[in-house]
Design goal:
Protein name: Thiamine-phosphate synthase family protein
CATH superfamily of the largest domain: Class II aldolase/adducin N-terminal domain
CATH architecture of the largest domain: 3-Layer(aba) Sandwich
Radius of gyration: 24 Å
Strand content: 5-15%
Number of helices: 12
Number of strands: 9
Number of domains: 2
Length: 308
């Protein structure tokens, strides 16, 4: 009796680890860096590099496996994908290949009695919430890197700081929105990011994104920059919908409440553009700010970069 998990451990994982090790080495990571990225020993990396580990040609030649390995290796090498994110990507691939697919066929070859039997090994949900969150964090990291690498971005950071946020597809509240803890600040002309993105650490910009979504805007990301009428004009000339809202006064409820200035302004305007800019020109004790809302963090970051 042989379980499909044994097929995964004995044939799939050694092959995928060997492919990942090779792909990471091709991206100029050292053996130690490859070992750290994959959570294995340097000696194991050496064995993979020298072909001392048996691999399965059917697994190695599968286009979906090759595409997943390339995506995970690129994410690990760039820092856009965490080890948890990489694990989730591979786990999802395994579950999909188990369901009457490649791994199921390898299992049948190891257990001929299974051929023709009705069984279902899809015990994990490929579209799990964990995968959505890890992909959101990965996308946000790319956006933050694009934003902070843009020459002149520090000059667009308002006194309250900037933040770039992105939410999971079915976001319901702040805890479903990832952001930079502590915001991004201008330190002597350089944009400084205090730490890696997390979920539930932004109320302000995350609230604006949730308000935009509540108004029917098909968006998952947002960033705030200092308000400048020339920036608004530039965005409008590039095809973005620009909508002004009144600033929230001291003591008013947060975004998402019954009285929501951002949501109400966008609902009234009914913007059809994929890129939306909402802004307020300030008030007593309120700094004027411009918010760019878009489909994902990298897209929003590129929009900001184009303004510089």
């Amino acid at each position: 009796m042989r379980f499909i998990e044994e097929v995964v451990v004995d044939e799939f994982l050694p092959t995928v680890r060997a492919m990942l090790a090779e792909a990471l080495r091709e991206r100029d990571l050292t053996q130690r860096e490859v070992a750290d990225a994959l959570g294995i020993s340097q000696s194991a990396v050496s064995k993979y590099a020298h072909g001392d580990v048996a691999t399965n040609d059917r697994v190695a030649d599968d286009e979906r496996v090759r595409e997943a390995v390339d995506r995970v290796a690129e994410g690990l090498a760039s820092g856009d994908l965490s080890r948890v994110g990489a694990l989730v990507e591979v786990e999802v691939l395994i579950r999909r290949l188990e369901a009457g697919d490649l791994l199921a066929e390898l299992h049948e070859a190891a257990m001929p009695e299974l051929a023709g039997a009705e069984y279902d090994f899809a015990v994990h949900d490929p579209d799990s919430g964990l995968r959505d969150r890890e992909r959101t964090l990965s996308s946000l990291r790319r956006g933050v890197r694009t934003l902070t690498a843009a020459s002149g971005f520090a000059g667009l950071i308002p006194n309250v700081g900037s933040n770039l946020v992105e939410c999971v597809p079915d976001a319901a509240d702040i805890d479903d929105v990832a952001a930079v803890p502590g915001r991004i600040f201008d330190v002597k002309g350089t944009a400084r990011v205090p730490s890696d993105p997390e979920f539930g650490v932004s109320e302000h910009v995350a609230g604006v994104l949730l308000s935009a979504r509540a108004a029917g805007v098909d968006a998952r990301a947002a960033v705030n920059v200092r308000y400048d009428p020339d920036l608004v004009a530039a965005l409008k000339s590039d095809g973005a919908a620009t909508v002004e809202f009144r600033p929230r006064e001291y003591g008013e409820t947060d975004a998402g409440a019954a009285d929501d200035p951002v949501r109400d302004a966008l609902a009234d305007a009914g913007p059809e553009s994929e890129s939306v800019a909402v802004y307020q020109t300030g008030g007593v004790g309120v700094e004027p700010v411009l918010y760019l809302v878009g489909p994902d963090a990298p897209t929003v970051a590129r929009t900001v970069r184009a303004l510089l």
